[in-house]
Amino acid sequence: xxxxxxxxxxxxxxxxxxxxxxxxxxxxxxxxxxxxxxxxxxxxxxxxxxxxxxxxxxxxxxxxxxxxxxxxxxxxxxxxxxxxxxxxxxxxxxxxxxxxxxxxxxxxxxxxxxxxxxxxxxxxxxxxxxxxxxxxxxxxxxxxxxxxxxxxxxxxxxxxxxxxxxxxxxxxxxxxxxxxxxxxxxxxxxxxxxxxxxxxxxxxxxxxxxxxxxxxxxxxxxxx
Length: 224
Ligand code: GAR
Fold this sequence. Notes:
Layout: E1 3-9, H1 14-22, E2 30-37, H2 44-50, E3 54-57, H3 67-80, E4 85-89, H4 97-102, E5 107-111, H5 123-130, E6 134-141, E7 151-158, H6 165-188, E8 192-195, E9 198-201
Parallel strand pairs: 1-2, 1-4, 2-3, 4-5
Antiparallel strand pairs: 5-6, 6-7, 8-9
Helix pairs in contact: 1-6
The structure holds glycinamide ribonucleotide.
C-alpha cells in the first residue's frame, strides 16, 4: 500500500513538482494525495493542478496569531484525505508544538543549507556571509524548533567566490530536487529509523567527497 502524502507549500513549489514527478514511478512507495497551500497566490497550486493532483488552499492570514485554529482546519483536511505523511516544500508558516508532536516522525521539511548551519531566513546569504566553501540542502524530520530535527539526507554543493545568494540558491535547488524525492522514498518505504535526535538509514554509504575550491590530484588548486 502506497503511503498517502500531503505536500504543504506557500510559493512556487519546485520541490513539490520534483516530488510529484518522482511519485509517478510505479515502484515509488508513496503517492501525492493533495497539495495544500496557505496562500491562494502560491504558484505551485497551478503546477499541481496541471499534474492532476488535488489542491486545497487554507489561507493562514485570516487566522493571525491563532496558529491552533489554522492547524485545526489543516488537520481536518489531512484527515479527509487520509494522509500518512507530510512534506513541507517552502511552507512558510510555523507550527505549534502540539501539531508537530501529532505528526512526529511523519513530517519532513527541506532547507537550503547543511543544517545545523544557517537555519532561518535567507540561508544562502548567511552561507555567503560566513564564507563557507561548501553548502547544500537538508531533508529533516520536523520538530518544534524551526529548521531543526533528525536529518534524513543531505546534499552538498561548492560555494564559489563569485556566487550571489541567487546563484548559490539555484545550485542548491538542483540538489534539493534530487534529495527530497529520495528521502521520501526511504521514509515511505520504511527504510529509516528514528533514534532520539538521530535518524538512521540502512545501507547506502556515499563514497563521494567534495573539496572546495577544487584540487588537482597532486593537491594543488585546480589549474594552478
Ligand atoms: C526551497 O529552497 C526550500 O528549501 C526553502 O524554500 C524554497 C522553496 O522553493 N525552504 C526553507 O527555507 C525552509 N526553511 P520551492 O517552493 O520552489 O520548493
